[in-house]
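## retry 2 of 3
previous attempt timed out at serialization; input unchanged, resubmitting
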Amino acid sequence: MNTEQSVAVVKPTLAKATPSASFRLRNGSLNAVRLRRVFDLFDRNGDGEITVDELAQALDALGLDADRASLAATVGAYVPEGAAGLRFEDYDALHRALGDAFFGALADQDEQGGGKGEDEEEEMREAFKVFDVDGDGFISAAELQEVLKKLGLPEASSMANVRQMICNVDRDSDGRVDFSEFKCMMQGITVWGA
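## retry succeeded, writing output
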């Protein structure tokens, strides 16, 4: 199916969450890298396609409890004929369409002014909140491990590995990551080949 065609987008029903502006980042190359990482997380069997079931399982693990019928209708419009699920290119097209449906076209947002620095700061804060489970302003090793488990990442299996991840960015050596440390870490990510 040609994803360039105008396709009616069915918004999936997410029982416990509302869309955040951080759904789509404004830095295109960094967004592509992050989107690829998310795609790879959702592609549980590593076959290069995300099925509706894999996507639903991932959303359920994150506590989003997506309505499977709505999800199938939305995703199905982007699955190429003869394919079992979304390839990365299809997933990218779906991501863009959902971003436009929820937040309007990125060009429209840019025309309305809005400080780019303020948007990036807000996106960082939204990302930080995902890891700061108890909302105390810090990411502890236990909180990081909890989020990594929800995402099904193997790093979550060892608390020693999780603590090492914390130590790598913990500038004041208090055993936790505050927002400024998190922000420095995120700004220090280098995207090669982008």
